[in-house]
Write a structure and sequence with these properties.
binds 2-amino-4-trifluoromethylsulfanyl-butyric acid, binds cobalt (II) ion, 4-stranded antiparallel β-sheet, 3-stranded antiparallel β-sheet, 331 residues, 4 helices
Length: 331
Amino acid sequence: MTAPVISPSKLKPNDPCWCGSGNKFKRCHRSAMERVIAGAITPMRPVPPDIERPHYAEHGGTDDRDEPMVKPPETIERMRRTGQAAAEILRKVGDAIAPGVTTDDLDALCHRLCIEAGGYPSPLNYGIDPPFPKSICTSVNEVICHGIPDSRALRDGDIVNLDVTLFREGVHGDTNATWAVGTTDPESLRLIRVTRECTQLGIESVKPGRPVSDIGRAIQDHAEEAGFSVVRAFVGHGVGTEFHTRPEILHYFHPRSSEIMTPGMTFTIEPMISVGAWQQRLWDDGWTASTVDGKRTAQFEHTMVVTDDGVEVLTLHPDGIWSGDGNAPST
Ligand code: MF3
Ligand code: CO
Ligand code: CO
């Protein structure tokens, strides 16, 4: 028999905590259930001059949407190396997650690891109004994506997504994963597991000759079957010498996703799955997106290439194991 799953959002301050400590909720895991608020952002970290930079590194900017979707084998070869290096960085930054560690600490680590790998941290100065000021996205609890690393320390019971993109050999490798910090409530753990499965199912539906809407259908079916919702506002994207290009990969079914998958096409799949509402709000910083209802959301991302008979994931760690949590048996 399994214990009933207690939704932390339904607990009163004096109820016993869901974690089984016997302590009152208010003295135990309640602080991890409060809404995330912005902390202080440190100055932009410098990148040594000998590191090759993307075009936006100096003045900000977005992408050339006309980059061809199908890449030559030589570009795929470079994306394979950059993608693997990005996966190794994601793993190492994830290993540093612990209660008390600030998201800015994780930024400093990611920044250093990208440079040590001979690459540029793609988020740094990407975009306009304003450009993104940091080298990794750190999205905690109800933050959907594009969280800016700051002075907030991770708390026992949080969940956090780390999104690493590395630019090296003229191409980007884009990958992310979600972790539980310390002891986290059962509903959040189930969210992480289901989201991971959504990304896996999306990848398994990549087949040459099929429309990209197959990907969104697989993801939406699995998320909604589990009682969760699919964030609409952020999509997977073509990636290569540019960070975000065509095709657009919706994570829910829509007939407008009629682009046909073709061998050599490179893109990401990166579903954001929410416990409650799928609608988002943008913080005043112009980047951080959170759920409207404050309920939690998780994400897993890989960069891949369509092959003659399926798909090759370009951001796999050399050991083949995905970073992040959600591998535990079903609860
Ligand atoms: N890596 C994110 C993605 O998956 C994009 C981050 S853009 C940034 O597409 F500017 F916020 F870093
Ligand atoms: Co991406
Ligand atoms: Co990403």
